[in-house]
Write a structure and sequence with these properties.
The chain is an alpha/beta fold. Helices cover 35% and strands 16% of the residues. The longest helix has 18 residues.
């Protein structure tokens, strides 16, 4: 006979009771949609490795975003995809006033003033070598020069109207430099800072690099992104970014790193925790569903619920357009 203190079914037998067992409920405010902005202004270019995703030209951006805002879209993350001809060793084009990101910020804040516009801050899309910062003569990362440049870019995105800046480069000390730059520019009161604190050197970024044309031309990023098997480094990076002024802590990728998401929530209990369900995770779910492994909607919702259970309050996902419908 089952002991009385072993009985659990009664607490969730009735469907009305089941939501009471859920730590967090998915809402539209839980989602941020990552989008790729190309400098081909009239283009809407499908990304073959990412079903239903496009590189969007500035002249097509309103038509893409307006229906999503009407469905309740609250936040976007912008990634620039410049032409190869503007790339150089220093990422000079990253904050070009006529470049895709700054033009997109201004358009979105004009057309959709309530939309939270976040900008990824990195140099890999803009450097001729494809690395995330400046390089020394021996092709190692020049951390200090990289941090100075990243801070300049972040401040210029903020000056253009961005509500949030999110450095994804993984340079040491960049959070403090950006926070100081925002403060010096008189913007620290209105522009939040989201740290890609635990960003791993993952195999799951392939479709993104295809989308953003940002693959490294030599070597890899393992010297500055975290080793996939590491936990202590992630914990130290999270604590460092909290000390340096981050408003939001992010873990990337998401599904393979739910232990780190939980660590982040425990280490930074007073900060929102974000997870980026990256391009490889998105593609895997699509391809598995296409192969009949599971029904896409059911699997995506379970995946999102697991991220929230681990501790996330914000999820960056390419499934945002579908989730805006599915939340209904």
């Amino acid at each position: 006979m089952v002991e009385l203190d072993s009985l659990l079914h009664s607490g969730y037998h009735n469907p009305v009771l089941r939501p009471l067992q859920v730590e967090r409920t998915l809402t539209r405010s839980s989602l941020m949609y990552p989008i790729f902005i190309t400098d081909e202004k009239d283009s809407l270019i499908p990304i073959p490795s990412m079903p239903n995703q496009h590189r969007i030209g500035i002249n097509r951006l309103e038509e893409v975003i307006a229906p999503l805002v009407a469905k309740g879209l609250k936040a976007v993350m912008l990634f620039g995809v410049p032409n190869d001809s503007v790339k150089d060793a220093f990422g000079t084009a990253a904050d070009d006033p006529e470049g895709p990101v700054i033009m997109a910020v201004k358009l979105l804040k004009t057309k959709f003033p309530a939309l939270l516009v976040s900008c990824d801050v990195c140099l890999c899309e803009y450097t001729s070598h494809g690395h995330c910062g400046h390089l020394n003569a021996d092709n190692t990362i020049d951390n200090d020069a990289s941090v100075r440049r990243l801070a300049e870019v972040a401040v210029n995105y903020a000056k253009a109207g961005a509500d949030n800046v999110a450095p994804s480069d993984m340079m040491d000390g960049r959070m403090r430099a950006i926070k100081q730059g925002l403060h010096d520019a008189g913007l620290s009161h209105r522009v939040s800072l989201m740290a890609y604190s635990a960003k791993y050197a993952s195999a799951l970024y392939g479709p993104f690099r295809d989308a953003a044309c940002s693959g490294a031309k030599f070597g890899d990023r393992a010297a500055y992104q975290l080793p996939p098997g590491s936990r202590g480094l992630a914990r130290r990076a999270i604590q460092r970014d909290v000390r340096e002024g981050a408003d939001i802590i992010m873990v990337k990728p998401a599904t393979f790193y739910m232990d780190i998401i939980r660590d982040a929530k425990e280490l930074a209990p007073d900060h929102p925790i974000a997870a980026y369900q990256v391009s490889g995770e998105y593609a895997m779910l699509h391809h598995a569903a296409a192969a009949g492994v599971f029904e896409l909607k059911t699997a995506v919702l379970e995946n999102i619920a697991s991220l929230q259970r681990a501790g996330c309050s914000l999820i960056l996902t390419y499934f945002t357009p579908e989730l805006l419908d599915w939340i209904e």
